C-alpha cells in the first residue's frame, strides 16, 4: 500500500484559510449568532435528538414503574401483618 505525503498541500490549505479569516474578521467554524443561530439541522441530528429523547422518556417510565412495583411488593408483603393488633 503506497502513500503520498500531503503535508505541503495541507499547509497551503491552512494558510489559505488563515488569509480568508483575516479578510472576514470572523472565526472559521463559529457561527455569527453563536450556538443559537438558525442553522438547519441535518436529518441525522434531528433523528439522533428524537431517539435520545425517546430513550430518556423510556428510562424515566421504567424508573417510575420499578418504583411502583417495589412499593406494591412492600405493601403486599406487609399485608399479612396488618391483621395483627399490637394492643
Features:
87 residues; mainly alpha; 2 helices; 62% helix; elongated
Short summary of the structure?
The chain is mainly α and 87 residues long.
Question: What percent strand?
Answer: under 5%
Q: If you compute it from the alpha carbons, what radius of gyration comes out, rounded to the nearest whole angstrom?
A: 30 Å
Q: How many E strands?
A: 0
Uncertain segments of ≥5 residues (pLDDT<50)? none
Through-space gap between termini: 89 Å
Rounded average pLDDT: 80
Percent helix, as a range, is 55-70%
Largest sheet: none
Shape: elongated
Number of helices, where a helix is a run of at least 4 consecutive DSSP H or I residues: 2
- Strand and helix order: HH
Structural class: mainly alpha
Description:
By secondary structure, the chain is mainly α. 62% of the residues lie in helices and 0% in strands. The longest helix has 36 residues, at 43-78. The chain is elongated, with a radius of gyration of 30 Å. The N and C termini lie far apart (89 Å).
Please render the helix and strand layout as text.
Elements lengths: L6 H18 L18 H36 L9
Amino acid at each position: 500500500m503506497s502513500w503520498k505525503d500531503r503535508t505541503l498541500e495541507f499547509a497551503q490549505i491552512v494558510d489559505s484559510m488563515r488569509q480568508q479569516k483575516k479578510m472576514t474578521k470572523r472565526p472559521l467554524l463559529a457561527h455569527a449568532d453563536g450556538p443559537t443561530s438558525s442553522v438547519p439541522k441535518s436529518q441525522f441530528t434531528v433523528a439522533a435528538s428524537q431517539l435520545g429523547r425517546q430513550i430518556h422518556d423510556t428510562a424515566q417510565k421504567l424508573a417510575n414503574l420499578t418504583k411502583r412495583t417495589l412499593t406494591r411488593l412492600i405493601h403486599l408483603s406487609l399485608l399479612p401483618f396488618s391483621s395483627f393488633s399490637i394492643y
